Amino acid sequence: MEAQLIDMSLEWSLSGNGSGGSRPATLGERLDAYLRAAGAEDPARRRHLIAATRQLLAERGSDGPAAPARPTWAEIIAAVDACLAAEICTVGPGAQSARGRVALKQGPAVNPQTEDEWGTPPRQRRRMHAQSLSLWRPQFLGDAAWLYRYQISRSTQSLAACLCWLAVLIIP
Amino acid sequence: MPAPADAPPRLRRQILLLLVLASTAAAALVLGTILAAEGFSLLELGILFLFSALFAWINTAFWISLFGFAAHLRRQARRRPDTTAAHSDRPGATALVMPIYNEDPERVAAGLRATLDSLCAQQPEGRFDAYLLSDTTDPDIWLAEELAWSRLNREFAGRVSVFYRHRPRNLARKSGNIADFCESWGYRYDYMVVLDADSVMSGACLIQLAERMDANPQVGLIQVPPLPVLRESLFARSQQFASSVYGPPFAAGLAYWLEGDSNYWGHNAIIRVAPFIEHCGLPELPGREPFGGEILSHDFVEAALLRRAGWEVRLADDLGGSFEEPPPTLIDHAKRDRRWCQGNLQHLGVVAARGLRPLSRLHLGMGVMSYLSSLLWLLLLALSGLEAWRQAGTEHSYFIEGDLFPNWPVSYAFEATTLLAITLAILYLPKVMGYLTLLADRQRLAAHGGALKAGLSVALESLLSILLAPILMLFQSGFIVSILAGRSVRWAPQQRDDGETSWHEAVAAHGGHTALALLAGGVSYAFIPEFFWWLTPVLAGPLLSIPLSRLTSRADVGRRLRDRGLFLTPCESAPPDVLQRLTQALAARQPAATPGEPSLFEQAISDPFLNALHRTLLEREPRAKSERLRLDGLIARLQEGGAGGLSRDEKRDLLCDPTSMATLHALAWQARESAAAG
């Protein structure tokens, strides 16, 4: 499986570099563990990304009412994504903000598609209308309108009725 | 494309119709003479009707093969390259679209990789893009597809754009999947080549198809007959051999007869996108399933709609490089037949649709008949048994009151034997013609193992088909009855690897067939022994169906025969480049997950790369507040009980939502940190 589950070394790292497991991991250790799991194998690169993410977290903290003493994982991951976006690839909003993590694992040079063609090109809706498969009927009947065209006068109807009666009386 | 016409297509079709009608009428006349010896009974009229319908059915296939045999030999003799395609100044853009549904992602990726490698090696002039269009519902398969796509995407970067789209809601199954592609990205392409999950096409074939479309603006669709390949079980290898030997003359016959009125078989075909969007939107049929609702076998209907709009549908029988994998076992074949049977019977509601061309109606009707014929055959056997029983119980009266001369019985043995011989000839001559086309081409003959081994293979295949045909007849008759009883088929992926049939599976699938054969054999032997001996060829298959099904599913038997040069096909003796690429890609595919390893769903939550890959491929959808609350509830349940506490659909719902996946990812890291800190 290409996507390896975070290995045991990650847990070792999160527990504070093996120093007894009681000390909470520092921000640097947390970032190091996350970036390693995300595929940043090169230590120098990791150091660079850690510094950049720290800087971003500090800036974000200074923008708010108070700098967070210990950022949550949601904040850390958002900061990593923002950093990677700036470092590796320009990304769009929302879910696309995670594109940097994909590029981190796969390498920046292998993103062949432009941003709006990641996964799929932009959609341009053109409806496929359901075709009629109504059943065919013999043409000579058509909509039977020809039947309505014939109008028989009342006197003709009376004559026809008389003839019918005569036929009933005489033929037997 | 078919060979240049010697006679106008209409005249050709009239001749064919005349031949079919005349020969069927002659056969019906002979049988009528035999049956009418002592006046027609209602039973005999039924027999005559069923026989005529079935004879017309096999007779049509015979005449198509005979025409095809001549056309194939003529093409072989000329060895002339097709000249209908020409290079265009502006080659069209083509999308290769592969709809997938819970298939093995590694197999899908290997097939597409082989096709794209072969295409890139040809350096096509026009633009080709590839789309994996997933309707997958299994969360782990969905994620594995994304990983497989990311590898393909990197591999073909700068050569072919490979796209991936997952549809959260599988509206209208495969046809809905293709329709979604057409509606969303159809505007980017002139043509699309529809591939099945196990389809492989050579680059040369794809380019040739695109060029033919460029050169023939009146053509809406070109179907290339796919050759079944790569399976090793005895059942599959016999099918592969039959398709390789008997297929080309038959396809040549179809192309010769149909020309621009050909049909679409659902995949391995190129389609002009604009008219397809314009004219091939499928409606829901009125009424409930199995006859109403979504159109299951959409291909025939789409071809009919294209024809109705005036576009030509052609069969490129002269093109090679189009492959698929056959079902590995008899039971898998029957499972596929069950789906197709319902789809084809559903066409009864389409065959009389307004404005369809007569030949489109014929295609739809023949699709229905391909399954209905099994039931008719079973009925014919039953009526014949009754008639034989009636005859056996009737004593001939030599002296009729008031008549001076004795009433001698008249023998119709000659007529009956002749009719039987003609029927057998009609059934088996196409096989002989297929063999003769091999003999006429040394290269093909050598690739099939030489004259002796190919001949032995034809004999063995004929024996197998004699045994298997009645079993399939019983299967299909059962399917028709269950469909008429209102039982609908569910959408399931096809078995695509060489999985052998176990004894348990064989008994479960064929127990009824064996019991029926024993009953029919016992009753006929006890009451009408003469009829029993006539029935033995039909009874043998069902009687032996359990061991036969198991034996034919075995890949080791298939391989042993291949080592002895039997059922050999050119794709085995000298595999084309694209199949070699596929074999290499299959050998290099990623191993399946080990039992202790977390599922891909769990990995998509915790692993930064897989989580990011998945999220970036999701399309953001606005969600109602109630839906958001439900998803939050699922997240809470996942935190409490782990992934095992969620159903497949619940996992899929979470995977569909980028916000939930981002939340889960952060929570997973939080939980890990907490666990590590003790």
Overview of this structure, please?
- The complex is a heterodimer of chains A (172) and B (678).
- Chain A has 172 residues and is mostly helical.
- Chain A has a domain at 8-112.
- Chain A is 49% helix and 0% strand.
- Chain A has seven helices and no strands.
- Chain A is rod-shaped, with a radius of gyration of 40 Å.
- The relative contact order of chain A is 0.07.
- With 678 residues, chain B is of the alpha/beta class.
- Chain B folds into three domains: 20-77 and 372-391 and 412-573, no CATH class; 91-225 and 256-323 and 334-367, Spore Coat Polysaccharide Biosynthesis Protein SpsA, Chain A (Alpha-Beta Complex); 600-677, no CATH class.
- Chain B has helices at 9-35, 42-78, 105-121, 139-155, 173-185, 203-215, 234-258, 273-279, 298-308, 330-346, 358-392, 413-439, 442-447, 450-484, 503-527, 529-543, 545-552, 555-563, 570-573, 577-587, 600-606, 608-617, 625-641, 648-656, 658-677, and strands spanning 94-100, 128-134, 161-166, 191-194, 200-201, 219-223, 227-228, 269-272, 312-315, 322-324.
- In chain B, strand 1 (94-100), helix 3 and strand 2 form a beta-alpha-beta unit.
- In chain B, helix 1 runs antiparallel to helix 2 and helix 11 (358-392) crosses helix 14 (450-484).
- Mean pLDDT of chain B is 90; it is low at 1-5.
- At the A-B interface, helix 1, helix 2, helix 4 and helix 5 of A face helix 4, strand 3, helix 5, helix 21 and helix 22 of B.
Strands, helices and their partners?
The complex is a heterodimer of chains A (172) and B (678).
Chain A (H helix, E strand, L loop, with lengths): L7 H7 L12 H11 L5 H21 L9 H15 L11 H8 L38 H5 L4 H17 L2
Chain B lengths: L8 H27 L6 H37 L15 E7 L4 H17 L6 E7 L4 H17 L5 E6 L6 H13 L5 E4 L5 E2 L1 H13 L3 E5 L3 E2 L5 H25 L10 E4 H7 L18 H11 L3 E4 L6 E3 L5 H17 L11 H35 L20 H27 L2 H6 L2 H35 L18 H25 L1 H15 L1 H8 L2 H9 L6 H4 L3 H11 L12 H7 L1 H10 L7 H17 L6 H9 L1 H20 L1
Parallel strand pairs in B: 1-2, 1-4, 2-3, 6-9, 7-10
Antiparallel strand pairs in B: 4-8, 5-10, 6-8
